[in-house]
Amino acid sequence: MTGTLFGRPYEDVEQELLYCRQFILGPSFVEVMPQWRYIDIDTGLKLSIHPEVDIEQACEGDRKLVVIGTVLDSTAPEKSNRDILRDLIGDAQELESLVRESGRLAGRWILLGFFGDRKYLLTDAMGLRQVFYSDIDLTGALWVVSQPGLAERWLQFQIDEQAQSFMDSYAFRIRDEYSWPAGGTALRGLSHLLPNHCLELHTGRSRRCWPVSPIGRRTTKDAEVFLVERLSNIVQAAARRYPLAVGITAGIDSRVVAAMTKPICHELEFITVRQRKMQDDHADITVPARLARKHGLRHVVVKPQISMSATFARLFKDNVFMATDMYGPDAEAIIGRLHRERAVMTGSAAEIGQCFYRNRLAGDRYNGPVDASDLAAIQRVEGQPFALKHYQAWLDSAAQRQDVKLLDLFYWENSHGNWLAMTQLQFDIAWREIFTPYNCRDVLEAFLTVDEADRIPPRYVLYRDMIARVWPELLDEPFNPHQSGPPGLGARIRNTVKRMFK
Question: What is the rounded distance in angstroms from the CA atom of residue 219 to the CA atom of residue 141?
Answer without folding.
Answer: 48
